[in-house]
Amino acid sequence: MFLSNRDRLIRALSSKDRESRAEAARKLGDLGAKEAVPQLILLLKDESMLVREMAAYALGRLKDSSAIQPLIDALHSKEENNEFVLRQFTSALIEIGYLSIHYLIAALKEIMTGNCEKHVLGYLTNLE
Q: What pTM does this model have?
């Protein structure tokens, strides 16, 4: 059975190796592989920070509206405290075009506290 490059990359999203998962997510986003969106959404909860970051990157590149709510949920998650991942979640939402930067800044000021707020709001302010 012949597998296309995209099919191989989609399979790699299930790899035990975090770097393979992350690289596959990034490449799928760059290739515009919308068929990978459901698997990429699942990776927003991956144990690896790198995989979560690359999954969000790919979802932002793919601009699929089905990723909006999972990205918002991931951004609100109390378990996520890595500034790079939070920035990528935010960036993906902006790339998808769901939220303007100004609206997102206002919403985050209301829901986020602590270091997370400082990092994400600082990132967004620099985008204005």
A: 0.79
